[in-house]
Amino acid sequence: MEKKTTRIVIVPSPGFSHLLSILEFSKRLIQHSNGLHVTCLIPTVESPPESSKAIVQTLPSTIQSTFLPSVHFNDDTPMASQVQMTMTQSLPFIREALKDLTSTSNLVAMAADLFASDALICAKELNMLSFVYFPTSAMTVSFCFYLPKLDQEVSTIDYKDHPEPIHFPGCVPVHGRDLPNPVQDRTGQFYEFFLERCKRLGSADGVIVNSFAGFEAAPITALTEEASGYPSLYPVGPIIQSGSDDITKNGYDCLRWLDKQEASSVLYVSFGSGGTLSREQLNELAFGFEQSGKKFLWVVRAPSEIAHSAYLHFGNDDPLRFLPDGFIERTKEQGLVVPSWAPQVEILGHSATGGFLSHCGWNSILESVMNGVPIIAWPLFAEQRMNAAMLTDGLRVAIRPNGNENGLVERGEVEKVVRRLMEAQEGTEIGRRMQTLKSAAAETLQQDGSSSKILNQFAGRLMGN
Ligand code: UDP
């Protein structure tokens, strides 16, 4: 009889960036283990985006992946409910897939994204080790462990109305309005789901987080102190995408355009895989860039009043038609606008890129850190406002613009923050601090660096060493 392969099953939550992160983690895990195989079961909303299909096509043979049967929604179903319902409806398929795998594999563990952690029930049924994978910060992990306590302590008001910044272990204090979206509406159904998930974290065999001590020393220490009583923490980051094998014509044009620019002169602007701005905000941003006179490379997406509207659903509108009249012509010597998608890792690694106006998704932050690029923090949804607080108030590697009384960042403010980052002494100092983080990131990934050692320990635990 053929020997069974030792296998870990990974389950991302729906959405490109969560899939990307857990797959990159798996690639690194394989490098650190001798003979481990991975199966990735992918819960899917509607049909998977091209970007997700492209990354699974380039996986090594040791990582198998399957898009689970997709779940369909009405346009007005809130994103959080779509994710929750997709997980619930995917559980029978996950059970089925595990059953099939047991005939050929020794299933040692499952690692599921926080938002896919319902799947860990299936792992427990088969006596597999269960891990929660956080494709976000250690600060988010700390917040999730702390939430049940916060829920008890602040029982009468919404967190956004809390008069004082909220302290959770090892983290920079955060205003209630900057806490992650799922907890903003305490009367909403999703709040209860999220709280339950946080309460269940303690029963996992460990928590894996895409961060590192050289970046988030205090939250990592708080989470690993013996007295914390939390499951083992594995800070294995920074893990970022290795780069695009298949650069599109648009992507190629971006890189050639950058080749012609002076070193560190260009502000790269992107709101992640699905962030969108309102039409009014898009306008203000455009005029602000124009007024600043600074070079920019902007990935433009069609506007929407809902900031995450393109995260799970992709429109066909030409985004460039929403820019102010004559903007492209007037700024043709100053900037380049690209519709919807650009090769971000290559852009951040290009010597002409000197700043990043980012929605503060965690992958984008790590990609910026690994390339030493200072940030203008423009958070939109999920835990991005918390990430922005950490970058600005804690690490001081980002500038955050101020909105007016309606939350709109006006063109004058855009111009001001662009200049502060790209030409003022403040920007130079932020750049210096980013370079220190860049070195720490490179160090931790070396063979004897702390993230590599932690990954070795994790792999050893799976392989029974
Ligand atoms: N990304 C990219 N090109 C784009 C927009 C995004 O390659 O035009 C990649 C980016 O490099 C990152 C991921 O998509 O790896 C976005 O993840 P992040 O966590 O920053 O944000 P999210 O998409 O979850 O909001």
Name the descriptors.
single chain, 465 residues, alpha/beta, seven-stranded parallel sheet, six-stranded parallel sheet, 16 helices, 13 strands, 41% helix, globular, binds uridine-5'-diphosphate
Describe the fold and architecture.
- The chain is an alpha/beta fold.
- It is 41% helix and 15% strand.
- The chain is built from 16 helices and 13 strands.
- The strands form 2 sheets. The chain has a 7-stranded parallel β-sheet, with helices on both faces. A 6-stranded parallel β-sheet has the order 10-9-8-11-12-13, with helices on both faces.
- Helix 9 links the parallel strand 8 and strand 9.
- Helix 1 packs parallel to helix 2 and helix 5 crosses helix 6.
- The longest helix is centred in the first third of the chain and has 24 residues.
- The radius of gyration is 22 Å and the shape is globular.
- The mean pLDDT is 93.
- The protein binds uridine-5'-diphosphate (UDP).
- Belongs to the UDP-glycosyltransferase family.
- Keywords: Glycosyltransferase, Transferase.
Can you describe this structure in just a few lines?
This is Glycosyltransferase. The chain is an alpha/beta fold. It has 16 helices and 13 strands.
Helix content range: 40-55%
Oligomeric assembly: single chain
Bound small-molecule species: uridine-5'-diphosphate
Portion of residues in beta strands equals 5-15%
Q: How many individual helices?
A: 16
Mean pLDDT across every amino acid position: 93
Question: Major β-sheet, in short?
Answer: 7 strands, parallel
Q: Termini separation (Å)?
A: 24 Å
Please state the overall shape, judged from the principal axes of the Cα atoms.
globular
Strand order of the largest sheet: 3-2-1-4-5-6-7
In terms of structural class, how would the helical and strand content be classed? alpha/beta
Count of distinct strands: 13
Low-confidence stretches: none
- Rg of Cα set: 22 Å
What is the H-and-E element order?
EHEHEHEHEHHEHEHEHEHEHEHEHEHHH
Family: Belongs to the UDP-glycosyltransferase family.
Protein name: Glycosyltransferase
GO molecular function: UDP-glycosyltransferase activity
EC number: 2.4.1.-
